[in-house]
Design brief:
five-stranded antiparallel β-sheet; elongated; eight-stranded parallel beta barrel
Length: about 230
């Protein structure tokens, strides 16, 4: 499995030092300020400036990128769908890998599958996609007050998680279903909190699982995992 690091221009130099190919995130905003070649282009957000799929693919070819990752989370659904379908045709024409979210997947594209579920079996979830997917490492840090029938919690900052681990020094456990660490504690009001989080070991196991299932790629956001990269394998 090939692992990519998604990085902004400001982070590109330090991210590249780890030896992973980059998914260049400058394309959320502009084609400018980008001198590096190789890796993937990441295009998302609202399509600023009305970027045409042909422009995106031509930029991939100029920069010798091997893939185009379309990370659309909001915007005009019809316009985005048209963009994806045109990009799909062009990527096929020029032998570029196209990666999309589930709601925009095509017959040829690879589907971006987040790793950060907090219920069910991660293995069963990934098996649905097999070789037709890219694992998106979403570093877990969730605080779920109990009882929580829907399994919904609050996303914690990694700093807050570190402070909690330091102050509480809890006994932690490892979920073989979610491939994540967890512990519980009671706050001053008597509310029990279920804390589930990722560390270097859990992320490594998720990557290895996806590779064993047949995923050809994984992508990690450099700013989320830079403190763990030296221990992810």
């Amino acid at each position: 499995m090939q692992i990519y690091l998604a990085a902004t221009p400001d982070d590109a130099r330090s991210a590249a030092a780890y030896g992973y190919p980059l998914a260049h995130m400058a394309y959320y905003k502009t084609f400018e300020q980008h001198g590096r070649s190789g890796g993937w282009m990441v295009l998302g957000g609202p399509l600023a400036g009305g970027i045409d799929p042909r422009e995106a693919v031509e930029e991939c070819r100029r920069r010798d990128f091997s893939g185009l990752l379309l990370d659309f989370e909001s915007g005009d659904r019809q316009a985005l769908t048209r963009f994806v379908l045109q990009a799909d045709e062009l990527c096929a024409q020029y032998n570029l890998t196209l990666i999309t979210g589930k709601k925009f997947q095509t017959e040829r594209s690879l589907t971006l599958v987040p790793s950060g579920a907090v219920s069910g079996s991660l293995r069963q979830r990934l098996i649905k996609y097999g070789a037709g997917a890219v694992l998106e490492i979403v570093r877990l840090a969730q605080d779920i007050p109990l009882p929580a029938p829907q399994g919904r919690g609050i996303t914690m900052t990694h700093r807050r998680l570190g402070e909690l681990l330091e102050s509480r020094r809890p006994v932690t456990f490892f979920s073989s279903e979610l491939l994540a660490r967890y512990f519980t504690y009671k706050d001053e009001s008597g509310v029990t909190h279920f804390i589930i989080y990722d560390d270097a070991e859990s992320i490594s196991k998720k990557i290895r699982l996806a590779g064993a299932i047949g995923f050809p790629y994984a992508v990690m956001l450099y700013s989320e995992v830079k403190d763990l990269l030296g221990n992810i394998s």
